[in-house]
Write a structure and sequence with these properties.
The chain is α/β, with parallel strands linked by helices. Helices cover 33% and strands 26% of the residues. It contains 7 helices and 11 strands. The strands form 2 sheets. Strands 6-7-8-3-9-10 form a 6-stranded mixed sheet, sandwiched between helices. The C terminus is likely disordered.
Length: 272
Amino acid sequence: MSSRIELSNVGQTFQVRGDDDRRLREFVALDALDLEIRSGELLSLVGPSGCGKSTVLDLVAGLTQPTSGTITVDGRPVTGPGLDRSVVFQQYTLLPWRTARANVELALEAKGGLGRAERAQRADTYLELVGLADFANRYPHELSGGMKQRVAIARSLSYQPEVLLMDEPFGALDAQTRERLQEELVSIWQRTGTTILFITHDIDEAVFLGQRVAVMSGRPGRIREIVDIRLDRRSAGDEDIRATTAFAGYRHRVWGLLREPRPAREAVAHVA
């Protein structure tokens, strides 16, 4: 399978002020990070709090530029945001004065090229994809948290990006809704074939969703190991994959990687 996204020797530093004085310090968020995401795969990225997971997503999205190294999508350098990539954040970012359909249409309006009727039809198609066909005319305040996130996902998919970047999108939801949306996301991914990078701090979520789980080290963030997840979600039927021995084994493996002590060379910051 060909590579869709490639991060090579990526480093990212920030200038921050120390707690004990006013001097600027160089905060090393990422250092020599290498990651390859295959075309059409759903890859989970997991790591300890503050390791730079969201920084990786921002870099792939083109929201920030790396201090060093290269990032490419389909061989093209990432120099800024683009319509080939779409982002779903933890916050729903829906416009309260627009209906679910109109919120999805917002992305299509920004892209351009479609008339009003075509935008409405496309929006309805993707609301149906996320199970909200009957809620197209509801406003955000009339929707549950899980429904709002479904609208956000529909909006991100509506203009058919090649890559979907998801930054802990289910983190604020209750456990039952979260598991239901995880299952829905797997179904959407299987139907659309979209390449998905899913950022999470939750090990169970990472294992359930990902074909592979990339495990990051603590700061400065690097890819410690990539774990192949071989769970047949298509033939699971009524069985809960999360309750299987295989799932427990993968979870234990990822948990063990996260608990491994950091090498001494993984310094947190340097005085500028």
